[in-house]
Amino acid sequence: MYRLAAFDMDGTLLMPDHRVGPETLAVLNQLVEREMAVTFATGRHYLDAQPIMAQLGLRGYLITGNGTRVYDNQGRRLHATDLPAEVAEQVLNTRWRTDASMHVFRDEGWMTEVAVPEEMLRAHHLSGFRYQLTELRGLPAFGNSKVCFVAPHETLLELQLQLQAQLGDAADLCFSAYECLEVLPLGCNKGTALDRLSRHLGLTLADCMAFGDAMNDKEMLAAVGHGVVMGNALPQLKSLLPQLPVIGHCQQQAVAHYLQHWLRSPCLTYSPEL
Predict the structure, then answer these.
(1) Where does the record place a coiled coil (predicted)?
(2) Do residues 105 and 184 make contact, with C-beta atoms less than 8 angstroms apart?
(3) Where in the chain are all domains bearing CATH 3.40.50.1000?
(4) Is 8 a catalytic residue?
(5) Under DSSP, is residue 125 helix (H, G, I), strand (E, B) or coil?
(6) Domain 85-185, what fold?
(7) Within 10 A of 160 (CB to CB), how many other CB atoms are there?
(8) Which of 12, 36, 38, 263 would bridge with 60, disulfide CB 3.0–4.6 Å?
(9) Which segments of the chain belong to CATH 3.30.1240.10?
(10) May I ask the CATH class of domain 4-80+188-264?
(11) Cβ neighbours of residue 77 closer than 8 Å, sequence gap 6 or more
(12) What pLDDT was estimated at residue 266?
């Protein structure tokens, strides 16, 4: 019997309009009633993810910033990892040959130099989380949890080569979505963060199940006792984790359907047709 359930948010637990469906909320409450540790594991900032969990009436655990921060179910921070100062300084001060916009995340919020299109802000309508217009080159080198570049995928692929050439193995690069490339502290991801949280709770990763849809979920899904890939997942994720079950689309609240079946028959294998 698994004792912790970790959920990516966008593209997994949330529907495309960034809401939690009623069936999903009901099954999350069932997990809580069974004393499972419900955990949101997301690329979102704490100031974005925590209000969503609070609005749902859940007192769960949080892994935010793609593993850069870990919080207990009382909102107490258990762990924080930032980009090394020399890496942050290099990323912030290099004039990259790209049209991608740069976004920096610190404990105090989301920093960027240009106004963000309203379409990007729709993802944050539940929390009201907003960016702060800031001269990025003026930010301190310390205290930056991650840097994101946003642009069409082909543009980011070109930028990825530049970042790899400049940073080498000093940081990790990850596509959290087709149009979002992130620079993260080396070795920092949802998988390592979940390992830290599970050990804090006296569990192992074998006691955990997890759901995800993007490349920033790869390490977490591969490491847990039972990983589940969304039907709407990035093709790269499906190809890298062919051993894991693939369920339906987040639009149809596939996580809820999967867990409803699992709660009835936790020892049985789920079939997406059920």
Answers:
(1) none
(2) no
(3) 4-80+188-264
(4) yes
(5) coil
(6) 3.30.1240
(7) 16
(8) 38
(9) 85-185
(10) alpha beta
(11) 69, 70, 71
(12) 67
